[in-house]
Amino acid sequence: MTAAKEENPLVNILINVLLPTVILSKLSKEGDALYQLGPTWAMVAALALPLGYGIWHWLKHRTLNIFSAVGMGAILLTGLITIYLWYNENAKPHVAWIFGIKEAVQPLILGSLFLITRRSTSPLFRTFIYNDAIFDIKRIEKTVAEKNAISEYDGLIWKCTLYFFGSFCLSAVLNLGLAHYFLGDLSPNIENWKEEYNGIVGSITLWGFLAIGVPMMVVACYILYMMINGLEKLTGLDKEALLLPR
Length: 246
Fold this sequence. Notes:
Protein name: VC0807 family protein
Mean pLDDT: 83
Organism: Rubritalea tangerina
Number of strands: 0
Oligomer: single chain
Number of helices: 9
Radius of gyration: 22 Å
Strand content: under 5%
Low-confidence stretches: none
Helix content: over 70%
Order of helices and strands: HHHHHHHHH
Transmembrane segments: 9-28, 40-59, 66-87, 93-116, 162-184, 204-225
Shape: elongated
Keywords: Membrane, Transmembrane, Transmembrane helix
């Protein structure tokens, strides 16, 4: 039986980040050209692309990746907030706060899931970093048990989980700041407000991806170092014994 083909991360980034950014930034203008969709249809197309991909992926694989699920929820929330802002004049002056809070919520939910699932049968930290595709967990846990160092072992995993949660908290702050930076000067009285809003949302989508991805990758590399260093001290095994051969 062949293993299921893994999702290509480049395709994921293309569909969920780059194409929506291009659509919102370049196709939101009103006009007679085919590519000038106008702000409403550009927003619909930008949201439909990642949402449709997420639904297709679930129907094909019948598995729902937790990150994809939160991302799809964020897409739907973006659509609802956009409708609210477009048709509620009283909300337009507060657009930076409204959209910024939405942008901050996504990484906070993702980070909280690392804490919530800690005691479950499938902790998210073990799925994402400390898993049997990288570490020889059976050998590690056997050695930890033999050395009676289970509490120290659990403490190391908990410490690394907290560090990872911290990276998402940092991303939430950065996302809130990005929303204020890009949307803070958007005047509610300009004639092409929807068009300008779409273009800014496209920029926030791109920079928001970096605001989540960069801290997470930096912290993930540091956590990997912490795990290897900590496990070497706990078990007495060297790095070659802790990690599976690549």
